[in-house]
Amino acid sequence: MVVEARDTIAGSSAVDCDVIATRLSERLESLSTDGPLAEALQRGDFKSESGAMRCELEIEVRFGIIKYHRDGQRVVLPVTTDALVSERAPVKFVAGVSEAQYKAASATLKQVSEDNKAKSNWKSRLGVLTFDRFFKLPDYEEAVRISVPQSQANSRDKSFEAIRKVKLVSWNVFTGQPSISAHRNDETAIDSGPEHLDYRIAINLEYKVPLRDMPATSAAKICRKKARDSYMNTKGHLRFDLSCVQSVDNDPGGGDGGPCSYEVELELDGSAVIEVLMNESLDHSKRAQLLKYHCATLVRSVKQLRDLIAKGDAGIPGADTLATNLMTTKLGLCDLRFVQHDAESVRRYRKAISPQLPLIGDYLFRAVTPAIEKSAHKRHTRSPYREYIDCIPGPYVVMHSGPLHGKRVVLCTRDHHSSDNSAIENKLS
Fold first, then answer.
1. Which of 77, 118, 165, 288 could serve as 204's disulfide partner, Cβ 3.0–4.6 Å?
2. Can you give the residue ranges of the mRNA triphosphatase Cet1-like domain (predicted)?
């Protein structure tokens, strides 16, 4: 995973933090001073009691599509970069990716985690099956979830707990316009967003609910089966969760249920953020820098993984090399070595742009060259003695004033071009 350097040799911050990561770090800092997170910090909810904490901080990013409420179509904004959508906008976030994108994410993370150079920084937990039940309780605003292990992979964790979430932040991030061809000719492409995946950033508090307060399992409002593969990067404090989810009846041993939906999530380790917020020895600037470090790592990883999986398996030719290099080296989002163009864009480029390149080059040469030549000529012909004054004294010449006065040395200016000079020079010669 990409992990940013925290300090330069001179000691200044080296965190490459874009607007979204900066705002996220600032929001975390503000939440720690006022609101539910601040109250939890003051009460000591994040301090372990008998090996377990009463509360955990969840910072997660989920891929999906932002759609309008009115027609269910993907939001279209006049921007080509990631942009936060207003919380008042009449839109909804629909989580999920296509099966091809899910497989692409799985293949990418598998290759990255098994790379020899970075293998020591990765841990994986594959094939975890759980049965989730969601209950609506009068004492809590949000639904309470109970996850019951169903597989041998997590049979050692048979002791399960009820969890309720307290929502702090929910940001929808739009990632750019769909292609023109899809917009004009393929409405289903816009709806499924094969080339564009938006994402949602959520900050929540997760509290444990005593099981004695839970109703009978038959009271569950939503039930689902979930198969999950998780990849943890210990150096970047990130976890990647790939889930296949089915809505089912309230019976773990029941039928297959409805169709399977696919989800890809990234989660920043909340304990690393809490450690920064609770460290009283840090001054404000250092705390802000560390928060930006974690948030920049999260946002950068989201963008890189999104760009890799957006087109599914077809969008990652040579994934062995691309995935390994992208996740283990410090590369920018717009690195030209990893740009992938669809066939329609290539065809249009070859038809409309490529034949005009000679004309474009000739025009630019004719338009720019005179100015460059003029500027170069000025640089080479400028006298070093004419930098700050217009009239330079000198040179000194000898003037012959006749038999009475003889020869004398006089000062001559550069702008003096009278015929006397010629006469004087003739007399001296």
1. 165
2. 53-268
> Could you tell me if 108 and 316 are in contact, meaning their C-beta atoms sit under 8 angstroms apart?
yes
Mean pLDDT of 136-158: 71
Q: What share of the chain is helix, strand, coil (3-state, %, to 5)?
A: 40, 25, 35
- Cβ within 8 Å of residue 313, ≥6 positions away: 100, 103, 104, 107
Amino acid at 208: K
Alpha-carbon distance of 225 to 166, in angstroms, equals 23
* Total H helices, total E strands in the chain: 11, 14
Helix (H) or strand (E) holding 421: helix 419-428
List CB contacts of 8: < 8 A, sequence separation 6 or more: 14
Q: Which amino acid is at 268?
A: L
- The alpha carbon of 205 is separated from its chain's Cα centroid by a whole number of angstroms, namely 23
Residue with tokens 């992938």: 340
Report phi then psi at 91, rounded to 5.
-130, 165
Which helix (H) or strand (E) covers residue 243, if one does?
strand 238-247
In the prediction, which pLDDT does 61 show? 96
* Amino acid letter, residue 151: S
Residue 122 contacts residue 231 (beta carbons within 8 Å): yes
Mean pLDDT on 291-309 = 89
Could you give the CA distance from residue 427 to residue 429 in angstroms, rounded to a whole number?
Answer: 5
Per-domain residue ranges for the chain?
A: 19-340, 341-382, 396-428
**Residue 99: how many other CB atoms lie within 10 Å:** 13
* CA 396/CA 411 separation, integer angstroms: 5
Task: Tell me which of 61-75, 288-302, 340-354, 383-397 is least confident.
Answer: 383-397
What phi, psi does 146 have (nearest 5°)? -120, 125
* Closest to 33 in 3D by CA, of 23, 25, 41: 41
Nearest to 276 by CA among 35, 31, 52: 31
- Contact by Cβ (8 Å): 335, 341: no
Q: Which CATH class is domain 19-340?
A: alpha beta
